[in-house]
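Dear Dr. V.,

Thank you for agreeing to look over these. As mentioned in my earlier message, I'm a first-year student in the group and I'm still getting used to reading structure tokens, so any feedback on how I've presented them would be very welcome. I ran two proteins. I've put each sequence directly above its structure. The first is here:
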Amino acid sequence: MKGFYVAATNQHIGKTTSTLGLAAIYRSKGLNVGYCKPVGQEFLDLDQLRVDKDTLLFADLLGFNLTPAYHSPVILGSGATAAFMDHPDRYTYREDVQKASAHLQASHDIVIYEGTGHPGVGSIVNLSNAEVAKMLGLGVVMIVEGGIGRTIDQLNMSIALFREKKVPIIGVIVNKVIPEKMDKVKYYVTKKLKEMNLTPLGFIPYDKSMAFPIIKSIADRINGTVTFNEEYVYNKVEDIISGSVLEVRQLEEPKNNLLLVVAADRADNAISKIKIWSHDSSGERSPLSGIVATGEGFINKETEEYILKHKLPFIRTHLDTLGTVMKISNIEVKINLKTPWKIKRAIELIKENVDLEYLDGALEKI
């Protein structure tokens, strides 16, 4: 069982969360699981070493010492593709991927390779997802977003490149299926997959908690400045409430981890309402996980004391309230080390909804 390649129809479909869940489950079976992101785009520079961001997550999960040459052999950062086109003879990308794979295969029971972007990403350097899977002799687990028509359309287009390279598709995981539509989606997509000679590995329901952002992501998105409690910017946000239309019904049900977005000159009034309406009349508990104050204005001493007492990150932004909420609503939330609830839930979702027995059998045949 040498491993498999996880690809997706596009970005933000659930490739990393699915890979994470699969890696954790195989590790729980007692296998020595290896991980590789053969081609990466989003990277970090650590002690003069450049690695794909996702490798940090897997290094922590699987407990390996991160070695870029093995776990993140090719990084296509800004300017990399033009440099390759100008002087392809200076690069050994294919050999780098092959060396990384050979090392990992020799030292692990199974290696899971995570693709990048849509199937064609990397083509400019002759390392598309399909080309990498073909070169390494791997079968592919394809991740597609839940639905019916659009799901099949995207899937059909995406697997064409793999089929052109004669790369076997082990099966398909349909992710983020609206729970109320699960039976309908499962019936029609399964029917169509069988016509396409593809195997459905599982249908994963959309889980709202997987889309919860953290305060830091929000601050970065709106170019905000954290003026209080910066050490708590990894608080999660489960919902947004607007101070301009704050009503008692928004706090009728006990909720935690709310983000208050309010014009700076109305922040005092909004906090006063929250104090009154909060279910904990003693004031010992706050339903908030952070506050974004938009535009110009100052807060009074009582509001500042509330912020400090409840350790709420307080963010200032020059955007107006509507613009702030719109930007926050469009955040693409990625799983990472600062979102432990997502890691736990990703593992649960894969374990509960993916046919791992079929996957094991298919791997033995490749």
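The second protein is here, in the same arrangement:
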Amino acid sequence: MSNKIKFIAANEYGWNVAPKPYPASQAIPQWWKDMTPYIVDEDNPDGSKFLIKDLRINASPKKCMPMLDSITSGYIIPLWADVQVRSLSDSEYLPNIFWKTEREVFESHIDGAGKIQVPDGYSDIVFKFINMWAIKTPPGYSVMISAPAGHNNLPFKCVPAIVDTDKYDAALPTPVFLKEGFEGLVERGTPMIQVTPFKRESWKAEFDLYKNEEYFYKQENYLRAVSFGNYVKSQWSKKSYK
């Protein structure tokens, strides 16, 4: 039986205007879709041919299931209205965000300005995205809030957070950084936040050592004896978000 995550509009405006969150599998970035399954080179000009050479296979990142899992896990909360970003000064980059809707789409995050460490390539002016959706998870489950995996060229990058959404009832306004020097229109529907539910559990670290070439034989059996796909066939677990 599947767990249920519920997205609750904070008000009638949000219900009627904001696009509903959707599974991240519906927002796979175009660069991933366009990537060839195998590395393009002189022996494989169209990237369609599987080759083994110098004890290596020529699989591209498109064959990496852990990477695809990160891109497709959880749900996407999209931008709910077009916004335009432009500088307020010709001599100095002072960005601001403009929109046409009656309700605010962003607000200045005064508390975060100058206090949160800024990622390289982003402005130190922090904005807060007015997310219209509250999230409710079953008892014992929280959500990880992160920038949408694989969407590395978006102008906004949210501050990651974990929220215990089995107890927290409000919507989740999200602080975001804006890419340095960006000006332009950001369209409604642009992925803003990736929400991934997980079960809260306590953990304790332990340490051990593979001995007598045990790790070598694990690699031989699981990584090299089979051409490719052994992880998916024998170790990977399917995840489902609907």
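From my reading of the second output: The longest helix spans residues 214-224. The two ends are 13 Å apart (CA to CA). Does that match how you would interpret it?

Kind regards,
E.
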